[in-house]
Design a protein that fits this description.
By secondary structure, this protein is mostly helical. It is built from eleven helices and two strands. Strands 1-2 form a two-stranded parallel ribbon. Helix 5 crosses helix 8, helix 6 crosses helix 8 and helix 10 runs antiparallel to helix 11. The protein is elongated and about 65 Å long. The chain starts with 5 loop residues before the first helix and ends with a helix. The C terminus is likely disordered.
Length: about 210
């Protein structure tokens, strides 16, 4: 939001407070505006409508309530979604593929907590191991998310690691984009020295 959105934001917050039988001071509105300023006014308005239609508590929603919605939901819900995404990628692509996910926190968990993609793939394969992985991953993902631990770029698979070790640099595979391809491609660009043609090939191969 910009300063031009402050009046609309103020009216929205006052109307929301009225629905909960509360009033907001000018300072309270200004503080909320500051905390939510990185989001578009239209998104804030949609979040307010969602809160009004689903919230069962009688207390005035806090900025944290808005941020949970604006950032995609509760951390534990997001972590569950990411765990499912990883399990699906393991099943579909396996340890030999190089991958780049659309979430930098998810990549951090794979690289830092599981020591990389091949190592992660190697511990999965049974129903019991997947249940254990899901519980462990969700807990670590939430901790990393709170601390803003992130890994950009791609995560090499066995083929890339082996070819790099043997000096076959011209035979490195394109990373597979997992999840939202635009977001994954953005993370790939942030850290990897990969030609744009290779990134586009990765996107084509993931379709």
């Amino acid at each position: 939001m910009t300063r031009a959105d402050f009046k609309a934001f103020s009216n929205l917050m006052q109307a929301l407070a009225e629905c909960y039988g509360k009033t907001l001071s000018a300072q309270g509105i200004a503080l909320r505006f500051q905390l939510l300023a990185s989001h578009d006014i239209a998104d804030v308005r949609r979040a307010a409508m969602s809160i009004l239609s689903t919230r069962k508590y009688t207390s005035m929603p806090t900025p944290a309530d808005f941020l949970e919605l604006l950032n995609g939901g509760l951390p534990e819900d997001l972590a569950e979604v990411e765990a499912g995404k990883v399990l699906e990628a393991v099943s579909e692509h396996g340890a030999y593929a190089s991958v780049v996910f659309d979430n930098a926190v998810t990549q951090a968990v794979i690289v830092r907590a599981y020591r990389g993609w091949p190592q992660l793939c190697s511990i999965l394969g049974t129903e019991e191991s997947e249940l254990w992985f899901r519980r462990n991953f969700v807990k670590i993902w939430q901790a990393y998310s709170r601390q803003n631990v992130a890994v950009t770029g791609h995560i090499p698979g066995l083929t890339e690691l082996e070819n790099s070790r043997n000096g076959f640099l011209e035979a490195l595979p394109c990373p597979i984009l997992i999840g939202d391809r635009e977001k994954a491609r953005s993370l790939l660009r942030e850290a990897d020295n990969i030609p744009i043609s290779q990134i586009l090939l990765a996107a084509e191969g993931d379709k």
